[in-house]
Design goal:
alpha/beta, 17 helices, binds ligand BES, binds zinc ion
């Protein structure tokens, strides 16, 4: 996919011209659009001023007008959805190129963020996972080039916009990388292959990767990761990813931790709910997001020191599988009574969170498809956030959530919940009671943190059973855009430093 700014609008049956129309743009079209195009349009400007109206203006000229409503109330998300409509229509019309004309861009107060949306959308929208189809070529989308028409549009020709555009392209690509990793089937994507792919990405994008193998993990006594791995034939891995630019804005690193359960059968406490195992290749979505985010950070050379930690294994009921009633000793020496082997994510994350301490982190963010309770609470539209971090960090994350539209809902970590994970015979147990399941999982993780920390339970939005606009069915790459928006703001906003 080639995505760029352009100063030309060509007339060609293979190119779909998309006009993004707001209440203020009709006169601009007359001024700027080359005459043959302008004439071809049957301007029902009243109709087009309305939001969500879509007018396939002429067949022969392949022009599509999309009404965005009032420019004043236009949001990044509305723009994303309109672009998705446009790219989808272009594929349906078998066009190989799309030219987008959006005169409203000129008045945006944040050209960098606007340009980020323009850069990311062709990738988000055009994504397909075709690896295992024999006739992949026939199924492939036709759109290969997207150009945004500038025509002296000052806002888009600013340095800010150029930077934002390149950031958007990197973020869009990284989101697709995360989607691919989640969609890869578990017989292909083991803990070892996940680490290998991270290593390869590190080489191409320019971040470093160290993979701790099973013997090293044993030597470190990571009891959580090793216990979960016992029922598996595949060895576990623990990958350490690092992006460290010269003169980073932060002296203490920001650490991203991702749950890498390549398949979750539930272990001996085999998943009890019918069909609940069907999508469990998604249980490494947190890991996918961390790996992809590191690659985007390196691609755009973000001026922040960032470390990614990815504990990975599958969770199976093999003959040596860990067992309900086991007491295990974690990396930080905490003893844990296992009462349900399906609550495995918190065990492997706990070791990673304790391991993070040695870096003296400024902030640690973990991402995990951790609980069904988070899905029950917020569904596929939101990420459940729990945190002990400062108000500034929290607000910055919430804002990044709104802007990327990977929205966060905060759940509390009140002291009283601690009672629910007390064990009769060990320091803590790995499940709480019947209620507040997302929170007791968060409380469990909190036990292993000793620094500012944010927990993001992405169990709902990480994997969809049906397409939702530009979020495809199956792996969505949730969290990459949220983290990148947060990190980019963090790199530039002195308030957060
Ligand atoms: N991987 C699951 C959580 C999950 C559920 C992810 C739905 C994506 C969609 C996790 O390991 C799990 O099984 N959690 C249990 C915990 C329980 C046994 C305390 C759950 O939420 O049921
Ligand atoms: Zn589980
Ligand atoms: Zn799991």
């Amino acid at each position: 996919m080639e995505v760029k700014f352009t100063n030309k609008i060509k007339k060609d049956p293979k190119i779909l011209l998309g006009l993004l129309i707001t209440d203020e743009s009709a006169p601009l079209f007359k001024e700027i659009l080359p005459k043959p195009f302008y004439k071809a349009i049957d301007w029902d400007s009243e109709l087009l001023k309305k939001e969500d109206t879509l007018q396939h203006i002429t067949d022969s000229e392949k022009i599509l007008g999309i009404g965005l409503g009032k420019l004043e109330t236009l949001t990044y998300e509305k723009l994303r959805k309109s672009l998705h409509t446009l790219f989808t229509r272009a594929n349906a019309l078998k066009c190989s190129q799309v030219t987008v004309f959006f005169p409203g861009a000129a008045t945006f107060s944040t050209p960098n963020k606007l340009a980020r949306v323009l850069g990311e959308m062709p990738f988000l929208s055009n994504y397909q996972y075709l690896k295992y189809f024999s006739n992949a070529n026939e199924k492939k989308n036709t759109v290969e080039k997207v150009s945004y028409f500038m025509d002296g549009n000052k806002s888009l020709s600013s340095e800010d916009a150029t930077t934002g555009f390149l950031e958007g392209i990197a973020i869009g690509k990284a989101t697709c990388t995360a989607r691919d990793l989640v969609n890869d089937p578990p017989n292909q994507l083991t803990a070892t292959t996940l680490a290998t792919i991270a290593t390869q990405l590190g080489k191409t994008s320019g971040f470093s990767v160290e993979v701790l193998e099973k013997t090293k993990i044993e030597a470190l006594k990571m009891g959580g990761l090793l216990s979960v791995n016992r029922g598996s034939i595949q060895p576990p891995t623990f990958s350490i990813l690092e992006w460290k630019p010269k003169n980073p804005v932060n002296t203490q690193p920001i650490i991203l931790v991702g749950k890498g359960v390549t398949f979750d059968t539930g272990g001996l406490s085999l998943k009890p709910t019918p069909n609940s195992m069907d999508s469990m290749k998604c249980d490494m979505a947190g890991a996918a997001t961390v790996i992809a985010t590191l690659s985007a950070c390196a691609e755009i050379k973000i001026p922040l020191h960032i470390i990614g930690l990815v504990p990975a294994t599958d969770n199976r009921p093999g003959e040596d599988a860990y067992t309900p009633n086991d007491v295990i000793c974690m990396y930080n020496q905490t003893t844990v009574e296992v009462l349900n082997t399906d609550a495995e994510g918190r065990l492997i994350l706990a070791d990673a969170l304790a391991y993070a301490k040695q870096y003296n982190p400024k902030l640690v963010i973990d991402l995990a498809t951790l609980t069904g309770a988070a899905v029950v609470a917020v569904g596929v539209q939101g990420i459940a956030m729990m945190t002990n971090a400062s108000k500034n960090i929290k607000e910055a994350l919430l804002k990044a959530g709104e802007e990327s539209y990977e929205r966060l809902v905060e759940l509390p970590l009140w002291d009283e919940y601690k009672e629910l994970i007390k064990s009769d015979i060990a320091d803590i147990k790995n499940i709480g009671g019947p209620y507040a399941g997302a929170i007791t999982a968060g409380k469990f993780l909190e036990h292993f943190t000793s620094y500012p920390w944010v927990h993001l339970d992405i169990a709902g939005p990480a994997y969809l059973n049906a397409q939702d606009n530009y979020r495809p069915k199956n792996g969505t790459g949730t969290g990459v855009r949220l983290l990148m928006q947060f990190l980019l703001d963090h790199a530039t906003e002195p308030r957060n430093n």
